[in-house]
Amino acid sequence: MAETGGTETGGAERPDTTGSNGTGEPPATSPAHGTRRAFLGGAAAVAGTVALAGTAAQQAAAAPRPARPPGGTARAGRTVAVLGGGVAGLTAAHELAERGFRVTVYERKALGGKARSMDVPGSARGGRRPLPGEHGFRFFPGWYRNLPDTLRRIPFPGNAEGCHDNLVDSREVMITRMDGREALRVPFATIGTPLPVLTPDALARALKGFFDTLTGLPGEEIAHFVGRLLVWFTSCERRRLEQWERVPWWEFTHAARMSRDYQRLLCVGITRNIVATKAEVASTRTVGTYSEAFVHNFLRLGADGELDRVLDAPTNEAWIDPWVSHLRSLGVEFRVGHAVSELRLADGRIAAAVVRTQDGARRTVGADHFVQAMPVEHARTTWNAELRAADPQLARCDRLRTDWMTGIQFYLTEPLPLVRGHVDHVDTPWSVTSISQAQFWPGREFRRDYGDGTVTECLSAIASEWDKPGILYGKTAKQCTREEVVREVWAQLKAGLNTGGRTVLSDAKLHSWFLDPAVSLGGGHPENDEQLLIHPVGTWFDRPTARTRIPNLFLAGDYVATDVDLATMEGANASARLAVNALLDAAGSDAERCAVTSLYRAPELEAARWDDEVRFSLGLPNLFDV
Length: 626
What we know:
Blueprint: E1 13-15, H1 43-46, H2 56-61, E2 79-83, H3 87-98, E3 102-107, E4 117-119, E5 132-134, H4 146-152, E6 167-169, E7 172-176, E8 184-187, H5 200-215, H6 219-233, H7 237-242, H8 249-252, H9 260-275, H10 284-298, E9 309-311, H11 315-329, E10 333-336, E11 338-346, E12 349-357, E13 362-365, E14 369-372, H12 376-379, H13 385-390, H14 392-396, E15 402-403, E16 406-412, E17 422-425, E18 432-436, H15 446-449, E19 457-463, H16 482-497, E20 510-515, E21 519-520, E22 527-528, E23 532-533, E24 553-555, H17 569-587, H18 606-617
Parallel strand pairs: 1-13, 2-3, 2-14, 3-10, 7-17, 14-24
Antiparallel strand pairs: 4-5, 6-9, 7-8, 11-12, 12-13, 15-23, 16-19, 16-20, 17-18, 18-19, 21-22
Helix pairs in contact: 3-17, 5-6
């Protein structure tokens, strides 16, 4: 890695000379943390529906899928600084290292980013490991295709397909209500029968049957919602981009004139609980794309696996630590505790990145190429006026918005055989989702392996709404202290689960809790250092591409434009592959380009979409838009 020195006002600045085990870097086996994101294998998630074919540029970038990307050869001396060590950064490092590049990853916190798991401080006793905490539970829907390919290429002892073999299937989903109604459990075995022919009529019948089982809504409301989904499924790409990107999901689904159950189950549930954005403002293109992917998955079309999958151990044990170890074996070096503060431009290229270390020192980092794989809210603080002038898409990123979607883990002293899958607490004011994790970790036993020997379960919950009053204190989550947030979420969980005279959750079972330390509450200035990109109408037009106008700067992250559209681990992985392909072009490398697998597109509906292209050109609505 080429590195340059220099000075900067306000502190000494020196070249980065630390080795791969430099200051602030944890050992390969240390825990990292987990990302977001999203949840629900089926329930409200399937309730939207859409598929988004990739843009022409993305499709052109996608190469035929190799069994394993070959190393290829890169011109000697080519170095890459990957700025950010989350899913996007580690993916970029993986692809580049396999192709013979010298890669150094700079990460301000911990490798794995929001996708890591982390130790609960002071929780270990008697030789056991600390309790596992996380930013939020991980889940891997079957429509993910690029990330599973990466998982297969991370060796794991005893696994034929590497870390991919650490994915286990969820079997069902539960929807709870706070009005005393019994929770609804839907086994995935009862849904997802493949259709012989995917015609609009056959699709409508399948969706009606699914939503009738899932929601229990009146038949006319189910039929109306399915009709809206048919509009999306048969809309041409131009209509999706030019019309539906500008229409909120709430308006598209006609939610305002429907029942509260329709609104909560089919509109709010999929946007706030799953996508962490408000149905009233969320882009129909984004929600539709995400939902269509789930529908195809539940129909067993173009999927890597089952509808809802989770890891069989805490994230770092099952994925992140083996990944980091593998990257080290490929020659990747890591600088943890190095926060990027500025990118410097000279002669039209990035000359250096300025990083601040944990001890407050500033260093300049040089390289032939820079892959910036930081979350957008942090990346844009490093772009000065000169960079923004060099590439206007950087300036447009200022309009991208983020929101809070943060996890809390409740450690219980008794098992919680609730449901073999995720739970959508659909009526909760803070849009809570949860999963009981210990049941999916067959090789771990909480009492034996974690904590003080009394914990048997980790109930991991995510709160996606932080700006509405709760049921205990009448305050928003951002107005609460950390302890009040935990008590409030616990109360909302109990309100939906303790129905019909049963006590599923009780205070006596609660051993302790862990709230993501990225959240700072109290004192009137709430802060969240790890937020999530959201997708109000028009967001797509401000999303940057992986290739920039600066010839040695490439962008990777869940905010970068891919056909996934939604901020997910899959989107982060796909964007990193696009960034690497652009870098390979710039470097003149003869290495094989990364495969970039687009979302499944049902060929049976192409005729309907072609018809809609003609109707859109004539100013007519979609055929099903009645």
